[in-house]
Amino acid sequence: MTTPVGDTSRPITVAVIDDHDVVHAGVEAWCAEADPPIALVGSFTTPTAFLARFPDLPGTVDVVLLDLQIDGNKPEFETLRTLCHAGQRVVVYSHLVADEVILTCLDIGAVSYLAKTEGKRHLIDAVHAAHTSTPYVAPRMAKALLNDTQLGRTNLSEREKEVLIAWFQTESKDLVGKRLYISPTTVRTHLQRARAKYANVGRPAPTKSALLARAIEDGLLSLNDLT
């Protein structure tokens, strides 16, 4: 059973999912010094390993600290969705700092988002806050929320995302059309709409390479997906 919100009778329990040993060691050391206390109950290098150890979510883990990008792959949005939909409280802890990535994680259900550059105090405060009804907003998350209010979001449709990814993985719009069973003209239309949406939020992508950079920034795919 998870600790009831606001219960201080025992330490908050935390599990870390991250593919870097140094992160596990650092989080363990920080948690050992936390007040109120935080107990690290598991360190995992993949989401699969975590789910194998804790199949019944939220179970005995109060807060999961999730690295969004494992082994250089595209962001683990589906893992985050699985955890959040099961009722698990998740703090995303990542080097990815694009507004779209942060806002997508919050939309999915993460209770907070921390950049790995934000340090010990923010991580401890975020874990403590995740165990209460009070949200914790670290500086990079705050900036993303402010930009969302000021500029709006790209809000690519699922079909536009599919077309973009297929285009980056193939050599022509004709091949994209064959893969997705749509005409080359429809492919071109989706690409034009995606470019227009990026331009409208102040992130123009006039070339294929520029559009690829935007897609990687927003977590639609990783360099591993192109090999």
Overview of this structure, please?
- The termini are far apart.
- The chain has 2 domains: 139 residues, Rossmann fold; 69 residues, Arc Repressor Mutant, subunit A (Orthogonal Bundle).
- With 227 residues, the protein is α/β, with parallel strands linked by helices.
- Helices cover 48% and strands 12% of the residues.
- It contains 10 helices and 5 strands; from the N terminus they run E-H-E-H-E-H-E-H-E-H-H-H-H-H-H.
- The model has no long low-confidence stretch (mean pLDDT 89).
- A 5-stranded parallel β-sheet has the order 2-1-3-4-5, sandwiched between helices.
- Strand 3, helix 3 and strand 4 form a beta-alpha-beta unit.
Break the fold down into its secondary structure elements and pairings:
Elements (H helix, E strand, L loop, with lengths): L11 E6 L3 H12 L5 E7 L2 H7 L9 E4 L10 H9 L3 E6 L4 H10 L3 E4 L3 H12 L8 H13 L6 H12 L3 H8 L3 H17 L7 H10 L10
Parallel strand pairs: 1-2, 1-3, 3-4, 4-5
Identify the notable features of this structure and list them briefly.
Rossmann fold, single chain, 48% helix, 5 strands, Arc Repressor Mutant, subunit A, 227 residues, 12% strand
**Main sheet, how many strands, which sense, barrel?**
5 strands, parallel
CATH-defined fold name of the largest domain = Rossmann fold
Number of domains: 2
Compute the gyration radius: what is it? 19 Å
Q: How confident overall, as mean pLDDT?
A: 89
The appropriate CATH architecture of the largest domain is 3-Layer(aba) Sandwich
Give the CA-based shape: elongated
Distance N to C terminus: 43 Å
| Low-pLDDT sequence parts | none
The secondary-structure class comes to alpha/beta
- Helices, by number, come to 10
Instruction: Output the helix-strand order.
Output: EHEHEHEHEHHHHHH
Kindly state the number of beta strands.
5
Helical fraction: 40-55%
Instruction: Please give the CATH class of the largest domain.
Output: Alpha Beta
Residues in β-strands, percent: 5-15%
The neighbouring-strand order within the major sheet is 2-1-3-4-5
